[in-house]
């Protein structure tokens, strides 16, 4: 659940006509990808770009959703990846986010202040949660009779390399017995 509860009154600071047209109504925001995300491996960094759409609705007392506006959202994140404790871990940072008013049923409005609040929200709430998840990491695939020792992940332009020493794990099998 989001700690932010959108309503037409609070959005009035960004869209002055909104609380006049739809006073004190809750809002719903539907966010969706408009294109497949782009992942790019560069020297020592991973870059991710996403094109999103965000449709805003006012929720009438009877539950009907009234369309208000649609935003085009362009985001760019970058991050680092590394291997530790047999896990692939990472962290991310927001490089850029651009909001553009794609369509509006409530008239035009300036995007600068709204874009700044969205950036601040992502940096204060979204990225810490994402980085906590990325910091937990995911386990690397295990081999039955070998362990990775001192694995190193290196990012290059267009590819990544994982190199490691290995330790052979002895089993209790006796190969001389039938």
UniProtKB/TrEMBL annotation:
The keyword Disulfide bond applies. Keywords: Antibiotic, Antimicrobial, Disulfide bond, Glycoprotein, Immunity, Innate immunity, Secreted, Signal. It comes from the Eukaryota. It is found in: Secreted. Signal peptide: none annotated. GO terms for molecular function: lipid binding. GO terms for cellular component: extracellular space. GO terms for biological process: defense response to Gram-negative bacterium; innate immune response. SMART domains: BPI2. Residues 1-164 form the Lipid-binding serum glycoprotein C-terminal domain. Its main location: secreted. The keyword Nucleotidyltransferase does not apply. InterPro entries: Bactericidal_perm-incr_a/b_dom, BPI/LBP/Plunc, Lipid-bd_serum_glycop_C. Monomer. Homodimer; disulfide-linked. PANTHER family: BACTERICIDAL PERMEABILITY-INCREASING BPI PROTEIN-RELATED, BACTERICIDAL PERMEABILITY-INCREASING PROTEIN. The N- and C-terminal barrels adopt an identical fold despite having only 13% of conserved residues. The N-terminal region may be exposed to the interior of the granule, whereas the C-terminal portion may be embedded in the membrane. During phagocytosis and degranulation, proteases may be released and activated and cleave BPI at the junction of the N- and C-terminal portions of the molecule, providing controlled release of the N-terminal antibacterial fragment when bacteria are ingested. The cytotoxic action of BPI is limited to many species of Gram-negative bacteria; this specificity may be explained by a strong affinity of the very basic N-terminal half for the negatively charged lipopolysaccharides that are unique to the Gram-negative bacterial outer envelope. This is Bactericidal permeability-increasing protein. It comes from Nothobranchius pienaari. The gene is OLA.15442.
